[in-house]
Amino acid sequence: MVKWQDIHTIIKNNEYGKVRKSPYLNVYPPIVDRKNYNSVQVIRMNDELTEKVIIVEGTTDKRKVQAIVREPVDIICTNGTIGITKLDELIDMLYDKDVFILVDADAAGEKLRKQFKKEFPEAEHLYIDRMYREVATAPEHHIASVLLGANIDVYTEFLDKG
Question: How confident is the model over 90-104, as pLDDT tens digits?
Fold first, then answer.
C-alpha cells in the first residue's frame, strides 16, 4: 500500500510533469514520464481509493450525493461527458471496486450510461425517477432511497423527509 508520504516523494522527484489535482477524482493524476509516455501511478490523497465508487455527471450532483452518503465513498464527476481515453483510465483504476453509475434521466445522462454499460458492464446502474430528470434536482429522500437500495449507507434524516 502506498501512503501519502510515499507519493509526496514521488511527486517531488518527478522532473517531467506538472502536478495538479485531477477534476475527476480526489487524486493526483498519473505521473507521466514524457519521454516514454508511461503512467506510473494514481494515488488518492488520503491513502487509497475506497471500496465503493459512485460516478455522477456534474459537480452539483457530486455535492448532493456527498451530503447524503454516510460511508466512505469516492465520487467521480465526469462533467457531463467522458472521452474514451479517460474512460479506459477509470476502468483500469476501478476494476476491483464496487462501481455505481448515477446519472441524470435525460438524453445526455442516458448517452453516458450507455457508454458505461458498453465499456464497463460490471458497474451497477442506479436510476432516479424520470419525473425529476436530474440528480441535482431530485429530492434528497429519493436519492437516499436509491442509494440505500444499492446497499450504500446514507444518513437517516434524508430517509425521514420523504
Answer: 888 888 899 999 999
